[in-house]
Amino acid sequence: MTQVDQPTEFDAKAADSGANATRVFQSKENAAGAQISQERVDEVATAAIKAIHEVIRDKQVTYEEYDALKAWMIQVGVDGEWPLFLDVWMEHVVEEVANAEREGSKGTIEGPYYVPDAPELPADCTLEMREDEAGTPLLFQGQVRALDGTPLAGAIVDIWHADDAGFYSQFAPGLPDWLFRARVTADDEGRYFINTMQPAPYQIPTDGSCGKLIAAAGWHAWRPAHIHLKVSAPDHQLITTQLYFEGGEYVETDIADAVKPELMLAPTPRADGSGNEVTYDFVLDPA
């Protein structure tokens, strides 16, 4: 009897990843049912359509190019890559507008790979990983505080990131469901001590429609290594952000344009020689 090899993360397909991203987004509470007034829809949709009209006139778009766009947009839907397209090329501007008035920590995009309801872990913890997990061990530690410096006891640090090969659990085959995903509860001083592995840069999927756009435009498809976080506490605004590594590859050329100078980590070797450590504190605005 012939043994069938099980797929691994290296067999990940854009269509499968896109389908998972679509499923997760559609499961969000009120994701498609927000109450937006007719006047607001008219205002924004009209402005967006007019902006496209101006691009067509300015760039003298041909029917051949128009038909290529139609075919590509249809294929984006077939591939389930609208979450990827919007999160890579649009979300950073929405985030910039939405959080312009924040006084505390800087946010950035959520991206398409968040999964809610991750396992709950205490302040001093180790994220789920495989027995032979590749990469450099990393202690990610810090404190959550209010604007006035008050520690926020019991704050929730919702963390997720890619592995050393650049793949996310639940978006590539062969990975444990909750690999490098957890909701960590900070201690009475708002502190957390999370043991994990340092993630790697990764390419957004290139075998689907987004990859075809990247190839046609001559862009690169890489994101710098980063850690995703959603940090929250009662009576305070949740912050969604990503933290990057100083000197890391693609930090200056992130395809998602989501890197900010305030979001940099500077890893240093741990005293016991067991990998690196970083410290990053979060300051939350009042609700």
Features:
6 helices, alpha/beta, Protocatechuate 3,4-Dioxygenase, subunit A, 14 strands, about 25% helix, 6-stranded mixed sheet, single chain, globular
Mind explaining what this structure looks like?
- By secondary structure, the chain is an alpha/beta fold.
- The protein has a single domain, classed as Aromatic compound dioxygenase (Protocatechuate 3,4-Dioxygenase, subunit A, Sandwich).
- The chain has 6 helices and 14 strands.
- It has helices at residues 14-27, 38-59, 63-79, 82-89, 91-98, 209-217; strands at 120-121, 124-126, 137-146, 156-160, 181-185, 191-197, 202-203, 222-223, 226-232, 239-245, 264-265, 268-269, 276-279, 282-284.
- The strands form 3 sheets. It has a 6-stranded mixed sheet with strand order 1-5-4-9-10-11, with no helix packed on it. Strands 2, 3, 6, 12, 13 and 14 form a 6-stranded mixed sheet that branches.
- A hairpin with a 6-residue loop joins β12 (268-269) and β13 (276-279).
- The longest helix has 22 residues, at 38-59.
- It is globular, with a radius of gyration of 21 Å.
- The N and C termini lie far apart (62 Å).
- The mean pLDDT is 92.
Secondary structure layout:
Blueprint: H1 14-27, H2 38-59, H3 63-79, H4 82-89, H5 91-98, E1 120-121, E2 124-126, E3 137-146, E4 156-160, E5 181-185, E6 191-197, E7 202-203, H6 209-217, E8 222-223, E9 226-232, E10 239-245, E11 264-265, E12 268-269, E13 276-279, E14 282-284
Parallel strand pairs: 1-5, 2-6, 3-13, 3-14, 10-11
Antiparallel strand pairs: 3-6, 4-5, 4-9, 7-8, 9-10, 12-13
